[in-house]
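TICKET #2291
ISSUE: user wants both folds in one file
ATTACHMENT 1:
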Amino acid sequence: MLRYREALGLLPPVREQGAHRRFGDEELQAVAQGVDLERRFDVSPAELAFALRVLSEPAVAQAVRELGIRIGRLQAPRRALDFEKEKALRLLRTSGQSPASNPRKGDR
């Protein structure tokens, strides 16, 4: 069980290269925390390991975000210019004027 979690990256790294792995208090607490998360959120160790990859690897996070947008579970981020454009259009609608119906002084 511990070797499986280690292979998935769910244990702290070995402190010394080439040293025999010893599962001390720190490692066992990490395992207990992982098992608690798995139970609380009803996920497998592999799913938890993938969630950690999403949080730690920007390319993986971007790929998952793109999928989430494509399948409708996430909204595409709005760009600042789009927000400002929508805000200006809203202000024009609430004032009851449109740009075409409000000619500038020089256009008369």
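ATTACHMENT 2:
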Amino acid sequence: MLSMDDFRYTADLPYPPIKVEMKNPAYAKAMLDNIGGLNSEMSAISLYVYNNLIMEEKDEIATIFRKVSIVEMHHLEIFGKLALQLGEDPRMWTHYGCKKTYWSPSYNQYPSELPALMHNAINSEKAAISKYQHQIAYIRDENITDILRRIILDERHHVEIFEQVYRTYC
């Protein structure tokens, strides 16, 4: 059994200031995708709220998903502030070509058996890490890349937590 006292849900470093060098439509679109795209903070939050609800009988696991979702809400807020500073309306949407598309709960997979549920959560976190690393490679605003690097630390930490849950309960 896992003890909730054993976990911190964020990396042990402060977040950089939320600021950008200048408005940039391309970077703004990337931040919108982090908000409301297929692989986004909104997708993570909704998935973890769902997981929290269906794991109600396993209180330790439900609590972990609830607390990780709160960290993801902080990431959502950060990306929203960046999108706004970069010149975009920070709604729950993303760009597909020239069209803006609102986030949808259909973006998530919803396994209900614990092993598949944990694999899904782990893979979602790893996909976010990969996405943010890709963004770091082309974004030339050090303020944004510093924030992305800091958020990656949280996402890696979430992978570790979810892997520990998997080892303990699956």
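RESOLUTION: both attachments delivered.
EXTRA DETAIL ON ATTACHMENT 2: Residues 59-86 form the longest helix (28 residues).
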